[in-house]
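Researcher: We plan to redesign the surface later, but first we want a full-length starting point. Tokens attached.
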């Protein structure tokens, strides 16, 4: 064992030294020294010049100068092997555990004294190498090693593990994403969830889970969770992995396509739900089982003590509707001035009966904002136990309700508004076709009277300048498994009178209660459209050209606390309250009215209500995108499944090089090059349209042929 050790002064020729390069210790032989400048020969027979200050603080052994390069090489090899063997036997973590808390720093020979009775330069050098490699536990501050405290060590170890994980994920991710992209470009079908991609054979489950999470985060467009957050890390990983794919141009749905190709997501996955953060189905409600159970207990206690309104209310809805939030009862009556009129009681579900505002369930329902009704099914704003069960106005027991009674004159103008809180039993839940049949045959006196009132309400709105859009309603149906789904679109069979009846009663309730709230100082969330409409923009519109023209004149309604007019509905004020099970705005308004009727004060003052508007408006916009765009996606899939089949279209605007056409039976619009339509194209002209490229995911619909209809 060589004992020679030199820890100070400049090394002489023949001395063995070490220096750091690329974070590794390199051994060398001093050939020449001049005023602190050294000429060294490394173990690889390379000459290096560097200052003595660059040397590691262990020097030796020293040999007589004048050795040949071959002799130097042999000696360096022997010493290097010895030191490497010593370093491999040193447990740096155990040394840290012995030293941690005893002193802040120490030289390598102090640590060597913990292991050997009389350590030589090789032991000190080997141990020094071990400490240099334990960067989480020690920091080299020449000539000593700083001993990190336990909390800093733990943080560094976590970072090291994360870095190691990132490297493993990046290495596997490059191969997997490249293979998936190749499958997409070659038109290969997506993998079944149970089929293993060859490039993923033997992949660490944690690495695979990280890659899948990365794709799902990108599909949902969750690119950041704050500095250093989970999504921030996934976004950085995504950027590093997609670069080698060399994809030209913008590819907004790349992550979705890769996830589908891998079998992580099914074909036709609704990425809009992911982007909106809207959980489909009812499984999300399991997290709030305790709150739901507590609500059911309170409901049962209140129902047992409730005095029931004996009025035989009826509801009219689609046969498949489960979340019923309105019913009605009408009767002829004598008004306070002695003249004949009508009593119209619009009964509304009251799910805020014993709601815990600010609790977890409330925050989740607020985030959902509205129920969604899509071709693939329904997603309810509330847990189904509450929204389609406990509070739904079904004819199966007592239900808490807000009854808004309107006294109307014979022209269906409001004479008096009387809202009250009560419990009701629903006499009948009627489907639209049955109500339509009763209206047409006159077989139900109650519904016939309700229809008479609804027609008067409708006529008064037209006189005040309402805009009524009457257009076909295509119904999209899906059949089969996602990989081979068949899409069909048929025009929904309507029940026009029954639908008008319900529509007018809902407008009456929303506008009538908005005026009542204004008069009584109850702040509500109003839908306003305070614009002036030209006379030609009012009335009933059924023609596609007229509808397109009129819609362009309408500004989107605003959500605000100020009760302004709603021009298209011809209402002086309008605050939605008729769907508290389906829309959070209505739910908030219902709670405002309930609190006022119970206590004489609204739940929230106007200033408090206004603070909700920015967040609620943004959330409604995000979730509303799903309702607007998802049906169009399926309509484009429907067209893609019928390539080269002509579809009827009508020109609704002829401006520019690409006139706009409407497909009335599908209720979608598209554009076509003017040269396909002819030089004398004008609104109202009808064509049989044939489509070429159709991409439902990117909303691409290209007309390749247009034959003028006879």
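Model: Full-length starting sequence:
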């Amino acid at each position: 064992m060589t004992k020679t050790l030199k820890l100070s002064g400049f090394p002489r020729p023949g001395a063995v030294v070490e220096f750091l390069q690329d974070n590794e210790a390199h051994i060398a032989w001093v050939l020449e020294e001049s005023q602190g400048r050294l000429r060294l020969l490394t173990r690889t027979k390379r000459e290096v010049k560097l200052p003595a200050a660059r040397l590691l603080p262990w020097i030796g052994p020293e040999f007589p100068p004048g050795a040949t390069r071959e002799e130097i090489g042999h000696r360096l090899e022997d010493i290097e092997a010895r030191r490497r063997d010593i370093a491999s036997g040193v447990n740096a973590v155990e040394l840290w555990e012995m030293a941690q808390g005893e002193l802040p720093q120490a030289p390598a020979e102090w640590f060597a004294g913990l292991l050997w009775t009389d350590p030589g330069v090789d032991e000190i050098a080997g141990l020094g190498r071990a400490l240099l490699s334990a960067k989480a536990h020690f920091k080299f501050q020449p000539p000593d090693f700083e001993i990190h405290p336990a909390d800093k060590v733990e943080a560094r170890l976590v970072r090291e593990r994360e870095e190691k994980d990132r490297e493993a994920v990046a290495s596997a991710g490059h191969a997997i994403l490249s293979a998936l992209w190749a499958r997409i470009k070659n038109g290969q079908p997506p993998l079944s969830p149970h089929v293993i991609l060859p490039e993923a054979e033997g992949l660490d489950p944690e690495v695979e889970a990280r890659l899948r999470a990365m794709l799902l985060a990108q599909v949902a467009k969750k690119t950041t969770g704050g500095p250093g957050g989970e999504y921030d890390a996934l976004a950085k990983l995504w950027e590093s992995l997609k670069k080698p794919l060399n994809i030209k141009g913008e590819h907004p749905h790349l992550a979705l396509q890769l996830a589908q190709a891998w079998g992580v997501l099914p074909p036709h996955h609704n990425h809009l739900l992911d982007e909106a953060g809207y959980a489909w189905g009812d499984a999300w409600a399991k997290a709030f089982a305790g709150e739901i159970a507590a609500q059911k207990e309170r409901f049962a206690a209140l129902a047992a003590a409730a005095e029931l309104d004996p009025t035989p209310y009826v509801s009219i809805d689609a046969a498949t509707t489960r979340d019923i939030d309105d019913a009605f009862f009408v009767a002829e009556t004598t008004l306070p001035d002695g003249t004949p009129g009508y009593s119209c009681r619009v009964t509304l579900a009251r799910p805020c009966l014993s709601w815990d505002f600010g609790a977890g369930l409330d925050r989740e329902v607020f985030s959902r904002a509205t129920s969604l009704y899509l071709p693939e099914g329904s997603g309810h704003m509330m847990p189904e136990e509450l929204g389609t069960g406990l509070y739904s106005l079904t004819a199966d027991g007592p239900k808490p309700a807000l009854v808004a009674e309107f006294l109307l004159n014979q022209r269906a103008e409001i004479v008096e508004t009387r809202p009250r809180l009560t419990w009701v039993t629903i006499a009948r839940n009627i489907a639209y076709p049955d109500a339509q049949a009763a209206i047409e045959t006159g077989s139900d006196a109650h519904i016939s009277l309700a229809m008479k009132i609804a027609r008067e309400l409708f006529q008064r709105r037209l006189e005040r300048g309402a805009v009524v859009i009457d257009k076909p309603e295509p119904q999209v149906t899906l059949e089969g498994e996602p990989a081979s789904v068949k899409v069909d679109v048929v025009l929904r069979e309507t029940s026009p009178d029954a639908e008008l009846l319900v529509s007018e009663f809902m407008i009456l309730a929303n506008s009538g209660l908005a005026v009542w709230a204004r008069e009584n100082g109850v702040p509500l969330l109003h839908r306003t459209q305070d614009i002036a409409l030209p006379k030609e923009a009012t009335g009933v519109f059924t023609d596609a050209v007229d509808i397109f023209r009129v819609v362009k004149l309408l500004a989107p309604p605003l959500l605000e606390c100020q009760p302004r007019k709603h021009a298209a509905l011809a209402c002086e004020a309008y605050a939605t309250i008729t769907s508290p099970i389906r829309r959070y705005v209505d739910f908030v308004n219902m709670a405002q009215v309930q609190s006022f009727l119970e206590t004489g004060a609204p739940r929230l003052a106007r200033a408090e209500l206004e603070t909700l508007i920015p967040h609620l408006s943004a959330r409604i916009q995000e979730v509303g995108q799903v309702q607007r765009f998802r049906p169009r996606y399926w309509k484009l899939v429907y067209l893609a499944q019928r390539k080269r089949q002509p579809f009827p279209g009508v020109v609704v605007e002829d401006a520019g090089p690409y006139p706009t056409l409407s497909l009335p039976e599908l209720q979608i619009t598209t554009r076509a090059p003017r040269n396909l339509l002819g030089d004398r194209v004008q609104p109202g002209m009808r064509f049989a349209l044939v489509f070429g490229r159709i991409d439902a995911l990117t909303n691409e619909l290209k007309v390749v042929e247009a034959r003028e209809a006879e």
